[in-house]
TrEMBL record:
It comes from Clonostachys solani. This is Vacuolar protein sorting-associated protein TDA6. Residues 1-23 form the signal peptide. Residues 185-259 are annotated as: Disordered. Pfam families: Vps62 (PF06101). Residues 222-252 have a biased composition (Basic and acidic residues). Keywords: Signal.
Length: 512
């Protein structure tokens, strides 16, 4: 009887462990997996040379536990003493356009599409309300230049080196002709922490005066009311296929944005143009990417994309999860007739949306946002931001570190997503869906259409750098580029169900 009881206890424990191993990965990653993904996962598990490791991975989701070790953000490298890396002369800021070195000499002949292309300015209101980004004070991986990132990468096709010519921002889109999974793979072992991964030379220049002071506090309004009960139109749910609808009689509320103000916002003032201007306050050598998307009827989405060469994952009980090479984050502002109405902040696989008045502002009325340490997820407040796991075991952290002004250095574009519909990629007669803005007419566009990944493919289980516990990888695959961040979205969020906040809530989850 004693052995029966002990056997029952052991069996119950094993069943509990099996249930935990089955359920936890699904809780942490609720996305469904098709047959192709399951087959790929089986191949990943089979890459381990050890029988016990494969069985532990299959049955209780403990993969590569013999690889577990500390993964510090930095190895103590003194980048300031590296003369090769410190290439700024006499401490001067290098403000040349990052694509100039790649531009071929003009040929005198232009194709039909180039001759027909009409360059559009970036509306003044976009730069007037450009975000100010607080990077984390203890950050180790700073904003990066996508051109410099490419210099340290090799193209891989289905985990095999693709021998080809040099790739640049001007021809990267040609990789879409390759079959299979295409990735940009680091030429260096990222765990050796090469200097280009940190991008220390791109730390923003400090502001002489604190732009945080004098700003208006965020509006305090309840969050639980439906948008249709509060807004005068459906600006929060529109694109060219779904026009804006007025929800109330305009005579009841009066004009919220009169014609004279609208003209003032839409008129470009060359003296106030911010792109590539030599202003040291908040300037970073790493260009941001500004993509303007016209949604029709006066609604424009301004997507500010920020690139980092490395995403450092967070730690749970000293174990780090979620590292990957290449990291794209974004902040979107939705304008209606030149007036900012709402915003979206990208955070991991989703993000948060707020009405414009909810955000913290600078003394000049610009939104102030925060980049989390390591992951670079975007948040509207400084502090701790728990996600996924309970008891704050996994959290992002933000603070009032160096302030970055992406309006000072950026690639600016206009994007028309309707030109992507029902058109084959091989067509050469179609109008370009992405056009450089007038303030940077030579800005490259090919890189934007690249469908592959901007970093290494997930490392195999046989790789000493890799482990996976309950579905969470130490190293994941690098991200896709800005084109694949739902630029055609109707709502502020990327997902269909979009909750828009009217006040900042530190307890709000990025899944909301």
């Amino acid at each position: 009887m004693y052995w029966v009881r002990r056997s029952a206890i052991v069996l119950a424990v094993l069943l509990c462990l099996s249930f935990i191993a089955w359920s936890v990965p699904r809780i942490l990653d609720p996305t469904s997996k098709d047959a192709e993904k399951r087959a790929k996962d089986q191949r990943w598990v089979a890459s381990s040379p050890y029988f016990l490791d494969r069985q532990l991975c299959r049955w209780i989701s403990l993969c590569g536990i013999h690889h577990l070790r500390k993964d510090p953000a930095s190895h103590g490298y003194d980048w300031e003493d590296d003369e090769d890396y410190n290439d700024d002369l006499s401490g001067e800021l290098r403000r040349t356009r990052a694509w100039d070195e790649d531009v071929a000499a003009p040929s005198g002949k232009r194709n039909v599409l180039q001759r027909r292309r009409v360059l559009k300015e970036v509306p003044d209101y976009v730069y007037r309300y450009a975000p100010l980004v607080h990077l984390y004070s203890g950050e180790e991986f700073w904003p990066s230049d996508i051109r410099e990132h490419l210099e340290h990468m090799t193209v891989y096709q289905d985990s095999t080196v693709h021998n080809s010519t040099d790739w640049s921002l001007h021809n990267l889109g040609q990789l879409n002709k390759l079959n299979g999974m295409v990735t940009l793979h680091s030429n260096d072992d990222v765990e050796s922490r090469p200097p280009w991964l940190h991008s220390h030379n791109n730390i923003p220049e400090p502001f002489e005066d604190d732009p945080d002071t004098g700003g208006s506090p965020p509006a305090r309004r309840p969050n639980n009311e439906d948008l249709s009960n509060r807004e005068h139109s459906t600006w929060y749910d529109t694109n060219k296929d779904h026009p804006v609808h007025r929800l109330s009689d305009p005579r009841k509320y009066g004009s919220s944005f009169d014609r004279s103000r609208r003209n003032r916002y839409l008129t470009k003032n060359p003296l106030e143009e911010r792109g590539h201007k030599p202003d040291s306050d908040g300037y970073s050598r790493a260009p941001a990417v500004l993509v303007l998307v016209d949604k029709g009827e006066g609604v424009v989405d301004a997507f500010w994309f920020f690139f980092y060469s490395y995403n450092l994952g967070q730690t749970v009980f000293g174990m780090r999860f979620g590292n990957h090479v290449g990291d794209w984050e974004h902040f979107m502002i939705r304008f209606q007739d030149g007036k900012p109405r709402g915003v979206f902040l990208s955070e991991h696989e989703a993000g948060q949306s707020y009405v414009w008045d909810a955000l913290e502002k600078s003394s000049t009325g610009r939104p102030i946002i925060y980049s989390a340490v390591g992951s670079h997820a975007m948040y509207p407040q400084a502090g701790d931001h728990p996600y996924v796991l309970p008891f704050k075991m996994l959290k992002d952290v933000t603070d009032k570190g160096p302030l970055w002004d992406p309006g000072l250095n950026n690639y600016a574009y206009h994007y028309d997503y309707t030109l992507e519909k029902d058109v084959e990629e091989s067509s050469t007669r179609r109008s370009p869906s992405l056009v450089a803005a007038a303030n940077n007419p030579q800005a490259p566009t090919s890189w934007f259409h690249y469908t592959g990944r901007w970093g290494d493919e997930v490392y195999a289980l046989s790789d000493l750098r890799q482990w996976r516990l309950f579905g969470q990888y130490h190293y994941t695959t690098g991200p896709t580029g800005p084109k694949f961040k739902s630029l055609d979205r109707k709502q502020l969020c990327k997902k269909e169900k979009c909750l828009v906040g009217y006040e900042l809530d530190p307890k709000r989850s990025w899944r909301d």
